[in-house]
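Bench notes, afternoon.
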Amino acid sequence: MWTAIFLIACIIAAVQMYKAKQRADNGIIADRQGNERYIERSDPDMQREMEQLRERVRVLERIAYDANTGSGRQSREIAREIEALRGDADTPEAAPDDGMSSESPRRKG
């Protein structure tokens, strides 16, 4: 009978150790009182991605803020004027014909 009790105690201890290892592998640890908490792990890839996302949020906040200020409106107006001028520059204008143009017909002499 004592052998059965010893075997049961060993099985229970092995199961408890297995559960503790599985929880630790998943980032959960327990203190002596049995309170469980997650382990903070530092992942360099995750840290770099978080920093990139923070920088993107800063840029978006700056864009949103600048768009609603007077200088932001002025910048948009200047950008519209530049685009309008670019649109005009794309259309070829008729050059004055001064007889020196390379596209003018040659005189036969």
